Amino acid sequence: MNIVDIQKLKQETEKAIAEAIEIKNKGIIAMQAQFTLKAQEDQIKAEGIIAKIPSLCFKAAQNGKTTVCVMPLKRTDYHNCYGNTLKYSQLKKGVAAIVWNACVMADLKPSLEFWHDGIGMDSGFNLFVNWD
User: Fold this and answer.
1) What count of Cα atoms within 13 Å lies in the side-chain half-sphere of residue 46?
2) If you write DSSP's letter for every residue of 94-120 in order, what string do you get?
3) End-to-end CA distance of the chain, in Å?
4) What's the pLDDT tens digit per position in 41-81?
5) Angle value at C-alpha 127, between 32 and 37, nearest 5 degrees
6) Structural domain boundaries in the chain
7) Is the pTM of this model over 0.85?
8) How far apart are alpha carbons 91 and 109 in whole angstroms?
9) β-strands 123-130, 67-74: how paired?
10) Exposure string (b/e) for 65-97, b if CB count within 10 Å is 16 or more?
11) Strand runs (DSSP E) across the chain, as ranges?
12) What SS3 class is residue 69?
């Protein structure tokens, strides 16, 4: 005697799996939309910074300088750095990566320089461009 309705078990299981897959796919689509929105926001912020680079360089060159900070980064912006070094490879995404890549492509010789407040409360990096 078979107490379990095999057909019902099969149907309910298939339905449950289909619903779970649908929920998962909706979550993935929502995450992709979030990432797309974040990338668009980063691009807009980066374009604003990039647009200011010529005037920053003009003012610095007028004052006899050969380098200028185009973007400050707090240590909290890029977590995987130890001590006072941050390598470009750690700027894989985000505003700083977009600005860095634009500076490289424009042959502005970007560099990252460590800064701190002197008392250990705050620190980060500045993205500089260099023309000498």
Assistant:
1) 18
2) SHHHHHHHHHHHTT---EEEEEE-SSS
3) 90
4) 989 999 999 999 999 999 999 999 999 999 988 665 555 55
5) 15
6) 6-130
7) no
8) 16
9) antiparallel
10) eebbebbebebebbeebeeeebeeeebeebbbb
11) 67-74, 111-116, 123-130
12) strand
